[in-house]
Amino acid sequence: xxxxxxxxxxxxxxxxxxxxxxxxxxxxxxxxxxxxxxxxxxxxxxxxxxxxxxxxxxxxxxxxxxxxxxxxxxxxxxxxxxxxxxxxxxxxxxxxxxxxxxxxxxxxxxxxxxxxxxxxxxxxxxxxxxxxxxxxxxxxxxxxxxxxxxxxxxxxxxxxxxxxxxxxxxxxxxxxxxxxxxxxxxxxxxxxxxxxxxxxxxxxxxxxxxxxxxxxxxxxxxxxxxxxxxxxxxxxxxxxxxxxxx
Length: 246
Known about the structure:
40% of the residues lie in helices and 15% in strands. It is α/β, with parallel strands linked by helices.
């Protein structure tokens, strides 16, 4: 991780859950970390959980990644304040569980999931790579995917969420080819967790003994992939809790 010391990381969906854990983990590892979130006050509160020597490394920018103008503005601010981005963690995601594909009048919710989980991810990656390419940086783009981006379980309705995560799987491979054809050494990695203890998981699943991962487990995985030598690209990393179906 030494080569990332002082480098700049952007984390989307940074106000809670996996995003919050990743922010703190990267800041402790010596990176300058910028959390993109609609509720920037929650990101700023995370500074209180960091050592005083680390807290100044954490910053927040208000951004709704379903809005292209917000994304472009956020990356421009990062360039102006910090020179550009070296690491992007595309973590933002929503599910709208309980709203089925065939539920009447569900158009707004379906579009929110697609725009957040897939379109926003691609636009953030585009802006990050533009910054990396401009500065001749061998950066790293990490997509927080899901096990349902590889296999759809039959016991629960996920509406269009698995389709967007399958899309992330395809996008990751497409980006790898684009980076290869551009002779870029920027890496792209998809991390696919099973159930993670976040606000999107029902409370009873957190307390009834269901095997479940902690957000810090995903943050540790990100440190692992970032810490690999330049010759190594972890393309897909699947993480499951012991005993879990998903």
